[in-house]
């Protein structure tokens, strides 16, 4: 069974959203040290030296500038094989909306829609 391991929050104004989520929920949001200049890590709980949640069952996420008016919060599932999962999505009636991309040396990422049009992120660790 694939697990929810991450979420992504699009924002029209990232600074305003950072303040909102920090003030309301106490989340810490920091610019990601990746090639992507507009991505931020969202920490909902304390993390270890690898950036992983210390609290069992908790997940952290990301925030980025909204690309389209209809873009909404996305959950991200960890999968053993991204390509196999993309094939299964299409076989089940879903669609690949963001093709596979490599994220640094951390993993592979893609976005799909389910049969109802909901966007889901899929993540495969490289390490």
Automatic annotation (TrEMBL):
State the source organism's domain of life: Bacteria
Record-linked CDD domains: SgaA_N_like
Write down the Gene3D superfamilies for this protein, in alphabetical order.
Answer: 2,3-Dihydroxybiphenyl 1,2-Dioxygenase, domain 1
The VOC domain, residue ranges: 3-125
Q: What's one Pfam family the UniProt record gives for this protein?
A: Glyoxalase
Query: What are the transmembrane regions?
Result: none
Q: What is this protein called?
A: Glyoxalase
What is the source species?
candidate division WWE3 bacterium RIFCSPLOWO2_01_FULL_41_18
List the lineage, top down: Bacteria, Katanobacteria
